[in-house]
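thread: overnight batch results

M.L. [08:02]
morning all. the overnight job finished for the chain we discussed friday. pasting input first so we're all looking at the same thing
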Amino acid sequence: MFKRKNKQPFLKRVQEAAWPSMGWGRYGTMLWLRLKRVSVQASNTSVAAGLSFGWLISFNPLLGTHTIWILVFSFIFGFNFIAAMIGSLVGNVWTFPALLWVSYQVGDFILHLFNMSAQSGFGNSLMVMMIGWPFIGVASFLVSYPIYYYLVKSIKQAYIKAKQLRERNKELK
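M.L. [08:03]
and the structure it wrote out:
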């Protein structure tokens, strides 16, 4: 529905993304419809993985880069981008101190396993968090994925039942 017959060259696509020839309003509407279609038709696995990946990224101490990480890894692994963005809301103003503290503690523990210690200072603390966040992030992914998968599956089944019930009620009228 939204695909071209002839694929545009890469530079033309970048130019269109930076300054759309159709105008910003129509471009925004097209993006919204595309995202809506993707989210409704997405598989349970894609949505659950996206939500869990949002949790994983929330432990990343590079706070301004979360959206970029989500965009890249959603494209590579096929996670649902919208679900990943929603899942990343776990990391917010109130939870970042706790998430970063846990990342630091895990990184410090890993350093102690190799008989290393972190020196004081912001740069060294950031490096300790950079060591720790992938481990705690993957652990959160592994814990949250089955929970989200069950929830998404249940919600989709309830949606299908409600839709069938509405259609049946329409036929009876």
